[in-house]
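In response to reviewer comment 3 from the previous cycle, which asked for concrete evidence that the modeling workflow produces usable outputs, we include below a single protein chain processed end to end. The sequence was submitted unchanged, and the resulting structure tokens are shown without manual editing.
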Amino acid sequence: MTFRKLFVVGAALAALGFAGAAIAQTSAQKAQIDQAKAAGVVGEQADGYLGFRTSTSDAGLRAAVDAPKHRHPRPCA
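The workflow returned the following structure tokens.
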């Protein structure tokens, strides 16, 4: 009976961990990316991720664009 409880608790914690990782952007990052898209600085790449169309020195924008790539890495083929 103890193993079953431990398994259920472990599964619940794992589910919560995956749910937290599914959040791709904060609202502030989304607003910043939307402004950059409108200005033509950021666009969608062929792999579906965002990428820079022009170079930028804005570290905050770079972090916002790169955040989803680090949270959802693509498996190696």
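The CA atoms of residues 61 and 77 lie 30 Å apart. We consider this sufficient to address the reviewer's concern, and the full set will be provided in the supplementary archive.
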